[in-house]
Write a structure and sequence with these properties.
The strands form two sheets. Strands 2-1-3 form a three-stranded antiparallel sheet, with no helix packed on it. The protein is mainly beta. The protein has one domain: Rubrerythrin, domain 2, CATH 2.20.28.90. Strand 1 and strand 2 form a beta hairpin. It contains one helix and five strands. The radius of gyration is 11 Å and the shape is globular. The chain binds zinc ion. The site of zinc ion has 8 residues, from loops.
């Protein structure tokens, strides 16, 4: 199954519902992704306003 990116929180996931925020709005058209392991200490996470661990899209199409 193709991975998709949540429109609400940019979390990249497989399945029907975003496991991060519970949203069912997603885009399969996203550019790049980052794996956030340490949101508190990650500059990328801060820039993208990510506060949780996981894989996130950099830009939604
Ligand atoms: Zn989400």
């Amino acid at each position: 199954m193709a991975e998709k990116a949540c429109k609400q929180c940019k979390h990249v996931y497989e399945g029907n519902t975003c496991p991060n925020c519970g949203s069912q709005e997603f885009s399969e058209n996203y550019k790049g992704n980052v794996r956030i392991l340490n949101p508190e200490n990650s500059e990328i996470a801060t820039n993208l306003k990510i506060t949780k661990k996981g894989k996130f899209a950099i830009k939604l199409g």
